[in-house]
Amino acid sequence: MHHAETIMQTLFAQLQNLTATGTNVERGRGQPVTVTPALTLEQGADQLSDGVNNTAFIDRLLNVRVIAHVKTGAQFDTELNQIRQEVFIALMADRTQGLSSIVLDTIPTGDDDPELSVEIDQKVGRQVMNFDIKYRHSLTNPGA
């Protein structure tokens, strides 16, 4: 299995059962969010790192987006901030994500502006949190 898939599966598991979102976690783009608060985990670009690349291995940066979704009549940003805090704590508790043989570091790269729309008299908020996962794989096999 490609190391990127191993990383995504691990992150998905780590985002399960946060206090604010519970098991309302979906993976991938285009998944409709029917229950909120919820998280969506999306894989982004998988770039070569500026770090060490040699004849044995390649270092890469896998961009991961964690998207918080809320529907609330109250201050939507208050709920988003609580979710952002819980996601940050969960993903930064072990910067190797428990995958120390392949993950070198987890690098928070910032959060996008909160977005707000109105659906039938209810505020719908969304905010993207961005992380780069620095990982290493064999020069000849991205799953090794």
Describe the model.
The N and C termini lie close together (8 Å). The protein has helices spanning 3-14, 76-92, and strands spanning 25-27, 38-53, 57-72, 103-111, 115-119, 122-138. Strands 1, 2, 3, 4, 5 and 6 form a 6-stranded mixed β-sheet that branches. It has 2 helices and 6 strands, in the order αβββαβββ. It has one domain (3-138): Phage tail protein-like (STM4215-like, 2-Layer Sandwich). The protein is α+β, with helices and mostly antiparallel strands. Helix content is 20%, strand content 46%. The mean pLDDT is 91.
User: Low-confidence parts lasting 5 or more residues at pLDDT below 50?
Assistant: none
Q: What's the helical proportion of residues?
A: 10-25%
Mean pLDDT comes to 91
Which outline best applies? Answer: elongated
Helix/strand order: HEEEHEEE
Assign the CATH architecture: 2-Layer Sandwich
CATH topology: STM4215-like
Quick structural overview:
The protein is of the alpha+beta class and 144 residues long. It is 20% helix and 46% strand. The chain starts with a helix and ends in a 6-residue tail after the last strand.
Primary descriptors:
single chain; 144 residues; alpha+beta; STM4215-like; 6-stranded mixed beta sheet
What does the secondary structure layout of this molecule look like, with pairings?
Elements: H1 3-14, E1 25-27, E2 38-53, E3 57-72, H2 76-92, E4 103-111, E5 115-119, E6 122-138
Parallel strand pairs: 1-2
Antiparallel strand pairs: 2-3, 3-6, 4-6, 5-6
